[in-house]
Amino acid sequence: MKYAAIADWAQEKEYSVTFMCDQLGVVCQGYYRWRSAGPCERERTDVELTEAILAIHTELDGNPGVRRVWAELTARGVQVSPKRTITCSTLSNPGPTHTEYVRMLIV
Fold first, then answer.
1. Per-residue model confidence as pLDDT tens digits over 16-70
2. Which of 69, 75, 7, 16 lies closest to 37 in space, CA to CA?
3. Is 105's pLDDT higher than 80?
4. What span, in angstroms and rounded, lies between the C-alpha atoms of 90 and 50?
5. In CA terms, which of 18, 29, 34, 60 is 20 to 30 Å from 105?
6. For the chain, which residues make up each domain, given as ranges?
7. What pLDDT is recorded for position 57?
8. Pick from 94, 62, 60, 91: which is nearest to 75 by CA?
9. Burial level of 53, CB count in 10 A (0-12/13-18/19+)?
10. Distance of CA 56 to CAs 6, 7, 23, 85, 92, Å?
11. Which stretch of DSSP H or E encloses residue 18?
């Protein structure tokens, strides 16, 4: 999290990276290694899983629920938990939250 904060603040160019690393108690070398490493394995697999979920949504008729999407992923040989399927489905199709949906019904 500290490295991500430094990356966000570095874009503003108000403070130097060296100063921010000193203030947050991290080594500059670690920040630059983190920045050049790219996304972690979890982020890469989330992108692949999200693409697979979007493909399932287009292939199946209607609006399949999480259980149906998870069953389809399992049938295709993808080992994923239902909870992670929910997370990636939410990322792939950010619809209204329950509170927003209730507000739409009331108004």
1. 889 989 998 999 999 899 888 888 888 888 889 988 988 888 888 767 888 898 9
2. 7
3. no
4. 9
5. 60
6. 2-37, 41-100
7. 85
8. 60
9. buried
10. 38, 35, 47, 12, 11
11. helix 17-24
Written as one string, the DSSP assignment of 39-75 is: S-HHHHHHHHHHHHHHHHHHHSSS---HHHHHHHHHH
In the block, tokens 């670690």 appear at 30
Identity of the amino acid at 39: P
Cα separation, 63 vs 53, in Å, equals: 12
Residues 6+ apart with CB under 8 A from 30: 3
Structure tokens at 94: 């950010």
